[in-house]
Write a structure and sequence with these properties.
- The chain is α/β, with parallel strands linked by helices.
- It has 4 domains: 7-138, N-utilizing Substance Protein B Homolog, Chain A, CATH 1.10.940.10; 149-182, no CATH class; 188-245, 2-Layer Sandwich (Alpha-Beta Plaits), CATH 3.30.70; 249-451, 3-Layer(aba) Sandwich (Rossmann fold), CATH 3.40.50.
- The protein is 44% helix and 15% strand.
- The chain has helices at residues 7-24, 29-38, 44-59, 61-71, 81-96, 102-113, 118-134, 148-155, 160-167, 175-182, 199-208, 236-239, 248-251, 274-283, 296-309, 350-353, 358-373, 396-405, 436-439; strands spanning 188-192, 212-215, 222-227, 243-245, 264-268, 288-293, 314-317, 329-335, 377-387, 409-412, 432-434, 444-451.
- The strands form 2 sheets. Strands 5, 6, 7, 8, 9, 10, 11 and 12 form an 8-stranded mixed beta sheet that branches. Strands 2-3-1-4 form a 4-stranded antiparallel beta sheet, with helices on one face.
- Helix 4 crosses helix 5 and helix 6 runs antiparallel to helix 7.
- The termini are far apart.
- Residues 1-5 have low confidence and may be disordered.
Amino acid sequence: MPRRIEPGRDARRIAQEVLVRVETTEAFADELLTHRLAASPLGSADRGLTTRLVYGTLAWQGRLDHHLGTLLRSSLAGFEPPVRAALRLGLYQLMFLERVPAYAAVDSSVRLAERAGRGAAGLVNAVLRRAAAAGRSGLALPDPVGDALGRLAVEWSHPRWLVERWAEDFSAEELPDLLAADNLPGGTALRTNTLRTTRDALVAELEAAGAAARPSIWATEGVVVERNSAGLRELPAWRDGRFAFQSEASQLVTPLLGLHPGARMLDVCAAPGGKSGHAAARVGKAGLVVALDRRMVGVQRIRNETTRLGARLVALVGDACRAPIRGTFDAVLVDAPCSGLGTLRRHPELRWRRQPADVPRLAALQRDLLAGVATFVRPGGVLVYAVCTLAREENADVVTAFAASHPHFVVESVAAAPDPPPAATITPSGFLMTLPHRHGLDGFFAARLRARG
């Protein structure tokens, strides 16, 4: 006999499983959730609960662990991952989900801990009951006097090194707003596949299917789904390739290339293929898009996605620094590997995985990538560099170093693109920069350079 579905309990069980996998492997929460929920019989409301539990617990993990450290008589690190996940899930619900009664938050986490033994279940019960009795206001934060950044790191659940880094680039008034915005849900954004539909038609189709959809105010082909997004991959619009999942900020990058029908474009570091597919729709059948990725699994993802979208391109395995191609292109895109620190709303686990040494290491790689593809830009052609991070060393500093060592390239304002981004996203230096707390978007950076002709 099939197991009877207990919606709330099953939603929390799935959340615990995902959190354990995220902590013990290099897997990302969004991919795990997509696959786990696709195989689950949960309804839309409970899928939404699972998603909120996972993202919320990961985003607030630093603060949750701080409070658990005061509630436990031993180190949280000493417990097995399933027990840590149960404690974090329970405390997250007590602190941040007002609609969940305290008894339900405690009881559900006790049940999650039962597999680890009665001792674990009893500990979870005792700790969370103490937390429920104290209430959110009774769980103390560090004193900001003498260590304001330490207080911010705990209060807004970011590693201290990251708060210290951003304190160099943002004012004391703006920094808390950025940290707070990182903990908000990222929302679901789609890019209209103009090869198969229009944005207005896609919005109408999604609305008819029960999704609350609206046009993006930032991206001309973008659609934002504000509610009922869990089942989008089950819709005919997905199966028939009328949309792709792509963040609003990411959609602002491809237009900077200035592509036209018949243009030749090279996309290095192209997986999973969102920008390549976007470019292919712009150059049309008369154009050429070559997408490179170092791994065959990445190339296969590009091919699968562009086949679904009906887009034409050539996807190849290759290192951008030693690309297996000849000739030059009208436009080259370097969507470089980066720290991803602009996407903490969408990938909250990154804040706990990244280390300070990652930023200079990735910046060196980014400089090598730009140098490696410079010869593929035809005279008069365009080179676009993009990263989804706020780290200055990975964005403006990389562009400045490249321009200094390659004088035949000149930095142009992104406003010079035929289809420029909104003025509010253009910096005084002419770069594209989106910020979670200013624009409600992922943190993205892009620069447009032109090869002297």
